[in-house]
Specification:
mainly beta, Rieske Iron-sulfur Protein, 0% helix, globular, binds FE2/S2 (inorganic) cluster
């Protein structure tokens, strides 16, 4: 249901109440996923720019890098990276940016909680 213009009521807040929750919804004819990352809601199109896979159906993980000592590994992101299920491109759910190539990104939509509803602004 649209509130007119760019506000789209897409889900109930309880559907994405916990970190790691996600829901895939229709927003004006386009599939969009709403993710809960540490309590904040973010939305991306369910579309991978590589070969059009349903990006947001992939695993939600983190990102590790080699530590300063050159031996250990450390998390620099947790629970905010979605991995495309077809070929593994990874996108930051909080920005839409590809974590390996800043020249590649998908749109990131603002999301609000309005009463018990989730509203995507697009
Ligand atoms: S279609 Fe997403 S990485 Fe290839």
């Amino acid at each position: 249901m649209s509130d007119g213009g760019r506000r789209h009521r897409v889900a109930r807040a309880e559907e994405v109440a916990e970190p790691g929750d996600r829901v895939i919804v229709d927003v004006g004819g386009q599939e969009v996923a709403v993710f809960n990352v540490d309590g904040d809601l973010h939305a991306l199109p369910n579309f991978c720019p590589h070969q059009a896979a349903p990006l947001c159906e992939g695993d939600l993980t983190g990102r590790m890098v080699v530590g300063e000592d050159g031996w250990s590994w450390e998390y620099v992101q947790r629970g905010e990276v979605v991995t495309c299920p077809w070929h593994g491109w990874k996108f930051d759910v909080t920005t839409g940016e590809n974590v390996k190539d800043e020249a590649v990104a998908v749109p990131h939509y603002e999301v609000e909680r309005d009463g018990g509803d989730v509203v995507v602004l697009r």
